[in-house]
Amino acid sequence: MPGHIPIVSRLGLAEYVQLLIAGSILLLEFLVRVVAVLFPSDLFFTLQDLARSHIFRERPASHPLLKCRDACDAIRFHGFTPESHYVTTPDGFVLGVQRILPPPSPSVDEPNWPDSDNDDPGPTPFNTVTNNTHPSHLLAPSRPNGTYSTSSLHTVADPNHGKPAVLLWHGFMMCSDVWIFNPNTRLNLPFVLAENGYDVWLGNSRGNKYAYKHVEKSPDEEAFWKHGMDDVAGTDVPAVVEHILQVTGQEQLTYIGFSQGTAQMFAALSLNPTLNQKVKLFIALAPVAKPSVLRSSLVSSLVQSTPNLLYLLFGRRACLKSVSFWQSTLDPPTLTRLIDASISFLFAWTSDNITPSDKHVLYPHLYSPASTKSVVHWFQIIRTGSFQMYDDEPGLMGSMARTHVPHRYALENVKTNVWMAYGSRDTLLDLEYLKRGLNGCAVEGYCMEGYEHLDMIWGRDVESELWPRVLERMKRG
Asked: Is 423 helix (H, G, I), strand (E, B) or coil?
């Protein structure tokens, strides 16, 4: 075709406008970073508050949960006791894992929580918040007999001893925060499970805020980020499962995944026959294996691009790392508008089933670092229409010119029983693909009418419509 220029002609005028906007945002981020460095922090946040009140005409969001620094703070806020564990994988990544214990003794003094100017403290948690009776940093799992060693002189009883273990795992570019930062305690599945007698553990994938460490490599090194979903499925998940079983002395556990947390378990079970014996039930919330084509024409064009172009755009370390900067800089209402607009642009989601007040608290915890390689891997899966391992040398001319066949994740090897819950408006779901592939195990499903992807953990009706069904399925074993 006359005038057709390869690559350049692939994008239309609208896509180039979107790229221009993205470039403008990067420039704005640079300017804001300069201002944040040059001006004192108090003056910077004062200017931020003035802009919010005079430009957007709104009162700052100030829920006490916004003062919580990490998962352990949030667990305490909701009235439970956190316990931190660190699992070192065979290839050297140190994964932070949180365990939820019962509320501490009411005789212990309450902690000094940060002051808040919010007159409404939010929904009443299950129990009064009190100090941890045995700080998590002092506890080291010693043996699976219901005790922990806190020193060479004495041990303390494990308050979760004998309870069925359940491991929850977050989605793509997330961390365990997404499970526990809803202001309404009963909308957080881990606390519902803990109240119903389960020993609850929260997993984290390598590279995110709780797994940002390696025994030899630094996050500043490119080598630290040469990992993706293959490594999480083949190494992280089995290592955490094994750690939990060793600590609890149990032979099996229940696994609950959200989004990529489901894909990595599908992958792990397809590769590891032994893991199928250790996971007695797999609950998949908003399951994903082969996502549908993304709604954004710009992103769809990137999906069809070569990995080298994607690495050129996003770098070879953490992808979209600047999101963390905006999360900490923008006030919750502004961040909410930005994220709502972004997910509408990418996936055509409305997020109407998540209340605005919940978004203000949840969205600052939506993103956590992940490698660019993991993004490239998902783009390969979408482009090929196959739930497969990362392809190190994809053919430039498409599948017909391949010199090799990428290894696929054989879903038929999954033997663990699977219970799926999904939304009728989830544009990432390919239910028929999963049904066809999962032919070696019992599969059940439940559809939440009108629900989208994120709604399956944050929707306003999960307490009444979804969590009871999760509990009922877990009780059946």
From this structure: strand
Question: Alpha helix locations (H) across 315-409?
Answer: 322-329, 332-347, 356-362, 372-384
CA distances from 320 to 34, 69, 133 (A): 19, 21, 39
> Taking a C-beta distance cutoff of 8 angstroms, is the pair 49, 342 a contact?
no
Positions annotated as catalytic residues are 259, 426, 453
Give which of 283, 260, 250 is closest to 442, Cα–Cα: 283
- CA nearest neighbour of 225 among 237, 211, 241, 238: 211
Predicted confidence (pLDDT) per residue in 311-361, tens digit = 888 889 998 877 777 787 788 888 999 999 989 988 999 999 999 999 999
pTM of structure: 0.81
Helix-helix angle 372-384:307-314, to 10 degrees: 150
Cα of first residue to Cα of last residue in the chain, in angstroms, is: 61
> Can you name the residues that pair with 420 across neighbouring β-strands?
284, 445
Residues 6 or more apart whose CB falls under 8 angstroms from that of 410 comprise: 270
Token pair for 411 = 């879903």
